[in-house]
């Protein structure tokens, strides 16, 4: 579907072979939709203003997994997820405090996970500032300040003028865009897992956990090889995951799998120190694609470059209740 949308023929201009030395495999892990992807201000709760016990337990498991594996990470906050009836809830803020207590970082992901392409630049900037108004004091209490911003849906502007306006706005407020080079559909798997948890289907839960980690490893492998094809070396990757129960329950196995392939886990600052991240991003499509895709398009590669990207199995999509062409 991605190829059909944007296909165009061109001659590649970047290096296409890796060096003879082993790749320096590094990866920065990022989590979107903190404090938790299924905490919504408009969602009625069993006890208003409290975090449901299953979510609290899953959040604790995710933080424990991050601590036990010794992997740095940054979580991107939607401040509206801290609200019930327009009021900030202390137990939801405590979930972010626990993230900071674990030595992890936090960034801005807008207040309401708004779509830039739908609402336009002024409303989008207002939503960023709404999140900043909550996030900045929380970090200031620890002598920190927010520095990273993640675009919801990875939609970064419908026009070059919108992108330029956003770049200037973010710079004015001391934010830097956090790109994503390894995209995946963990949200589909997480939706399936949530349904299996709701129904008590332990067999489906186990099957999802068993197949999810190999799926993630295939995605990492795919984008690693695409970065080598485009840049001539293994890019320090930035991977997008979400704060959800499936990641909480599989993260140690995922880390073990990556370490088995020689990956080192680094923070986003180290990954972004690579010169590839200084490449201009002129991508204006609504598709939430990897920055490797964007750079390849700018360099003149055809969409054949992207052949073979892993997809989620149909049985997972069926269980999640998403369309067959969703990814």
UniProtKB/TrEMBL annotation:
<dbReference type="InterPro" id="IPR050248">
    <property type="entry name" value="Polysacc_deacetylase_ArnD"/>
</dbReference>
<keyword id="KW-0378">Hydrolase</keyword>
<protein>
    <submittedName>
        <fullName>Polysaccharide deacetylase family protein</fullName>
    </submittedName>
</protein>
<feature type="region of interest" description="Disordered">
    <location>
        <begin position="1"/>
        <end position="22"/>
    </location>
</feature>
<dbReference type="Pfam" id="PF01522">
    <property type="entry name" value="Polysacc_deac_1"/>
</dbReference>
<keyword id="KW-0479">Metal-binding</keyword>
<dbReference type="InterPro" id="IPR002509">
    <property type="entry name" value="NODB_dom"/>
</dbReference>
<dbReference type="InterPro" id="IPR011330">
    <property type="entry name" value="Glyco_hydro/deAcase_b/a-brl"/>
</dbReference>
<feature type="domain" description="NodB homology">
    <location>
        <begin position="21"/>
        <end position="164"/>
    </location>
</feature>
């Amino acid at each position: 579907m991605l190829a059909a949308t944007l296909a165009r023929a061109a001659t590649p201009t970047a290096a296409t072979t890796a060096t003879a030395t082993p790749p320096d495999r590094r990866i920065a892990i990022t989590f979107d939709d903190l404090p938790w992807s299924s905490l919504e201000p408009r969602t009625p709760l069993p006890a208003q203003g409290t975090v449901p016990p299953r979510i609290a337990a899953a959040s604790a498991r995710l933080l424990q997994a991050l601590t036990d594996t010794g992997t740095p990470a940054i979580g991107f906050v939607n401040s509206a997820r801290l609200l019930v009836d327009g009021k900030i809830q202390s137990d939801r803020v405590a979930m972010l405090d626990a993230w900071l207590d674990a030595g992890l970082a936090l960034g801005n992901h807008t207040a309401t996970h708004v779509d830039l392409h739908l609402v336009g630049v002024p409303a989008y900037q207002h939503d960023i500032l709404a999140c900043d108004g909550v996030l900045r004091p929380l970090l200031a209490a620890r002598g920190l300040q927010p520095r990273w911003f993640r675009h919801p849906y990875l939609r970064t502007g419908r026009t070059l003028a919108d992108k330029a306006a956003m770049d200037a706005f973010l710079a004015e407020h001391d934010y830097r865009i956090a790109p994503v080079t390894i995209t995946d559909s963990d949200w589909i798997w997480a939706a399936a897992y949530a349904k299996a948890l709701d129904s008590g289907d332990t067999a489906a839960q186990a099957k999802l956990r068993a197949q999810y980690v190999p799926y993630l490893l295939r995605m990492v492998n795919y984008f690693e090889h695409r970065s080598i094809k485009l840049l001539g070396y293994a890019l320090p990757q930035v991977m997008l995951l979400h704060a959800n129960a499936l990641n909480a329950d599989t993260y140690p196995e995922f880390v073990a799998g990556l370490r088995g392939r020689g990956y080192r886990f680094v923070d986003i600052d180290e990954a972004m120190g690579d010169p590839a991240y200084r490449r201009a991003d002129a991508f204006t499509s609504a598709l939430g694609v990897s920055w490797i895709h964007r750079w390849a398009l700018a360099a003149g590669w055809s969409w054949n470059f992207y052949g073979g990207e892993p997809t989620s199995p149909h049985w997972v999509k069926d269980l999640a209740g998403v369309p067959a062409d969703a990814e």
